[in-house]
Write a structure and sequence with these properties.
single chain; about 130 residues; 3 helices; mainly alpha; about 60% helix; flat
Length: about 130
């Protein structure tokens, strides 16, 4: 009822008289960035530890592996100058960044778990419940 007049409407297309088109590479790039944002938010919006924990762990492991290499090099060669190497400071930086990313993911996980609208479900009907 009410859909008896559905059909195709013929329209006339005319060439643009004024201005320039808004469809171009800039619009394509902005649309792609929007798509990436939505994908990222859908994937990690309710599970931020999956993102921050992964990159935090990788960063910490990279720094830790570099530190192990430097310590083993120092144990093998007593003349090896540990703190004069840029790898020493890079290893420390990677380990600190890894811990910070991991803690950021943990705090973000706590925030998302305590959000009021985290699991709001639309209840259409209740069965077998009196009251």
């Amino acid at each position: 009822a009410g859909f008896r007049k559905i059909g195709e409407k013929v329209v006339e297309h005319r060439a643009r008289k004024y201005g320039v088109t808004k469809f171009g590479w800039e619009r394509f790039i902005n649309g792609f960035l929007d798509l990436m944002t939505i994908t990222f938010l859908n994937k990690f919006g309710k599970r931020p530890m999956h993102f921050f924990g992964l990159y935090g762990t990788l960063s910490f492991m990279l720094g830790f592996a570099t530190s192990v290499y430097l310590v083993v090099s120092k144990l093998i060669d007593k003349e090896f100058s540990l703190t004069n190497r840029p790898f020493f400071y890079m290893a420390l930086t990677f380990m600190i960044i890894g811990v910070q990313l991991f803690v950021t993911g943990f705090i973000a996980e706590l925030v998302t778990r305590n959000a009021a609208e985290r699991n709001v479900y639309l209840i259409e009907d209740t069965l077998g419940i009196e009251g």
